[in-house]
Amino acid sequence: MRREALSWVTEWEPMIQNIRNFSIIAHIDHGKSTLADRLIQYAGLVEERNFRNQILDNMEIERERGITIKSQAVTLPYRAGDGKDYLLNLIDTPGHVDFSYEVSRALASCEGVLLLIDAAQGVQAQTIANLYLAMENNLEIIPVINKIDLPTADVDRVLEQIDGELGLDPAFHLKCSAKERVGIEEILEAIVQKIPPPRGSPESPLAALIFDAQYDSFRGTIVHCRVFEGTVKKGDLIRFVSNQAAHQVEEVGRFSLRRERMEELVAGEVGYVIAGIKTISDVRIGDTLTLDTRPCEKPLPGFKDIKPVVFSSIYPITSDDYEDLSAALEKYKLNDAAFTYQKDSSVALGQGFRCGFLGLLHLEIVQERLEREYNLSIILSVPSVRYRFTLKDGSLVDVDNPVHYPDRASILKADRASILKAEEPYIRATMILPDKYLGGIMKLCTDRRGGNSKMNYLGPRRVELIYELPLGEVIYDFYDRFKSLTQGYGSFDYDLIDYRESELVLLDILVNGDKVDALSQILPRDHARPRALQACERLKEEIPRQAFRVAIQGAIGAEIIARTTISPYRKDVTAKCYGGDITRKRKLLEKQKEGKRRMKMIGSVTIPQSAFLAVLKTESN
């Protein structure tokens, strides 16, 4: 580790040739956050007594789950073996497939990457996907084999995979153990030697790419950017290219675990800009920042346009919290550019927002962050994907909300003639796993309507399995089932491919005769009855008993396809009868029955939040 404090950093102004911008990409749980910790420690940015694991993961939820959710930037000072001083800008990235958008934003701001591979697990699905992202951005790729200290480490096998599966030269690789602090200096030297310095001129018109942002209650929106051309400093009047909004710069600086104020940011540097931006909607991730008086000729190439694939509505528990939820979503959107939302309403749950996510994990993270960071109590509707319907008049309708299922009136009359064709999105799922788990995974894919399978043996006991699956079958618990069946040794990645025709119906859930539109689902007809039975049983377990009988039904239009009943509480009204004619008891029972009938007509059933969440789950693993 670094023995001396690098005091030269605050006084030294680096030339562009002495800057390196890089990222670490890896499959989930390959040790990316641990390696970032060691690089930060080596640079002397944190004292041993103040160090904590996953130091860049500053959210509580990241520490609990052991995953990186938000990309974080940090500037590492490094004095290389040639005696020169360098600034290494690290932009940390998530590893889970649901956060691939975070990875693409980070890579657009770098010139090179460390491709981290677990010495025991080897190359996995997300390793390959991230490699392709790096190649699309023409980045210098340095393979790094991590966890070489493990008893199960097999470096020779990983080298074969680097050559055969990744197509990289295995001769140019690094070995390290981030946990044991082995090979850290060699990695830093490789970054300096192999990753090219950034291009650009401090004298050119300012062109900075916004790769992230966060909201501060006192300073406004803090913009995280990579400067490609020009210089920005305090007092400059900057402008966003997308909406022409202009603001005066109050502060610029670098990231050094905390914000470090600087005189200016020049071409090649990564840092932040504070300009008193109170209107959150002015900042768009992927936008170009330039000077108002001397703008750049054209905006920088933006990030990949990511479209959400999973949709769900978010409602406040109480209607009084609607404005708070609206403000929270606006602030949250700044910090998560892949998240989309628009206003929505439900008969059962009132006013809310229809939101788009990159996957079910992304949905869970958004829910937890809204509840923790903004102190909100919210309810989510059943997640759905975007379906496509061709109507009889030839028009094409995209539906991501069951409430907008086309021609509900015709459905209620059991007439589907107005819908000419229904289609659902399909994905190409790539799975890499040990061959001993092959049978269970193939059965799982077949049960989820998978087809067009391909299988490639990557090694003696290692298989790549490719299936085409409906996205609607994957968004629930497919990933959990996959990890369970492979005992954690399998990896999973997917890409959207096309839409395919399917017989889709609208499943409604009725509680006490009232339709709960937040629980409606669009799904294949042959899956409707099992899903309806399951939803009814889950709701029966979660909804409290009432003083009257509550019927829970699943229906397709006017056809009831599933039903269960919650038995009422029963008061023994005949307890006071100790004798006499039987008609006395009958009169009391009839009177009670009539009272329950009237109560059922005017009574309402409160559905707890746990009931909505229970319907999200499918069969037990």
Mean pLDDT: 79
CATH class of the largest domain: Alpha Beta
Q: In angstroms, what is the radius of gyration?
A: 29 Å
What is the overall silhouette?
Answer: globular
Portion of residues within helices? 25-40%
User: How many strand segments?
Assistant: 31
Let me know the largest β-sheet. 8 strands, antiparallel
Tell me the number of helical segments per DSSP (H or I, 4 or more residues long): 15
Which blocks of ≥5 consecutive residues have pLDDT under 50?
A: 1-12, 409-416
Q: What is the straight-line distance between the termini?
A: 45 Å
Indicate the structural class.
alpha+beta
Reported by name, the CATH topology of the largest domain is Rossmann fold
The CATH architecture classification of the largest domain is: 3-Layer(aba) Sandwich
Q: If strands are numbered along the chain, what order do they take across the biggest sheet?
A: 11-10-16-7-8-15-12-13
Number of domain units: 5
